[in-house]
Design a protein that fits this description.
The complex is a heterodimer of chains A (116) and B (116). Chain A has no helices and 12 strands. Chain A has 116 residues and is mainly beta. The radius of gyration of chain A is 14 Å and the shape is globular. Classes of the chains: A mainly beta (116), B mainly beta (116). Chains A and B meet through strand 5, strand 6 and strand 10 of A and strand 5, strand 9 and strand 10 of B.
Chain lengths: 116, 116
């Protein structure tokens, strides 16, 4: 069975500072993918970044980077130089391997608040 | 390019009424997903289609829920009869090829359903 855990219900960060949002996962399948989505107050789900289980390097997309520690089964999202517009819910998600490979399992989310 | 388009954005209906949610996926995407988001259960997959064919409907809560995809550019999720516990945000999402290739799912803005 696949499981995604986000242990931080809420986080605060000062504008222009970096913040790390935690995500741990559990799967017995060697092939999997990890995703981060942002959900602002308007409700839409916005794709941020993807990391494959066989990727050698950590994924980066602009101010977003994914700290992938395979042995620890963690895939933390790092946002550098936080902006007020980064205030939102952030969801970590995992795509299963050979079974149910087309489903995304979501964590419970972390609400990030950027303080001016 | 147009994203995933959902309608209605907001719906308030009385218990027992039929509700129909509509979705137009991104052109060229061959996978379509319906997700439901609630405070209690988070984001959960209801059903997904590949090339208009339902592949996995194990997440559909009960017989009151049904989904169809008559063609590549249109899908519906129907609830009949609706109940207050169906109140949630319903997301439609689409993807090009299977997630196993790392392609992400793109979400619509959601349909906010309230059943009173």
């Amino acid at each position: 069975a696949q499981k995604i855990t986000q242990t931080q219900p809420g986080m605060f960060v000062q504008e222009k500072e970096a913040v790390t949002l935690d995500c741990t996962y559990d799967t017995s399948d060697p092939s999997y993918g990890l995703f981060w989505y942002k959900q602002p107050s308007s409700g839409e789900m916005i794709f941020l970044i993807y990391q494959g289980s066989y990727d050698q390097q950590n994924a980066t997309e602009g101010r977003y980077s994914l700290n992938f520690q395979k042995a620890r089964k963690s895939a933390n999202l790092v946002i550098s130089a936080s902006q007020l517009g980064d205030s939102a819910m952030y969801f970590c998600a995992m795509r299963a391997g050979s079974t149910g490979a087309n489903n995304l399992f979501f964590g419970t989310g972390t609400r990030l608040t950027v303080i001016p | 390019d147009a994203g995933v388009i959902q309608s209605p954005r907001h719906e308030v209906t009385e218990m027992g009424q039929e509700v129909t949610l509509r979705c137009k996926p991104i052109s060229g995407h061959d996978y379509l997903f319906w997700y439901r988001q609630t405070m209690m259960r988070g984001l959960e997959l209801l059903i997904y289609f590949n090339n208009n064919v339902p592949i996995d409907d194990s997440g559909m809560p009960e017989d009151r829920f049904s989904a169809k995809m008559p063609n590549a550019s249109f899908s519906t999720l129907k609830i009949q009869p609706s109940e207050p516990r169906d109140s949630a945000v319903y997301f439609c999402a689409s993807s090009f090829m299977a997630l196993i290739t790392g392609n992400t799912i793109y979400f619509g803005e959601g349909s906010w359903l309230t059943v009173v």
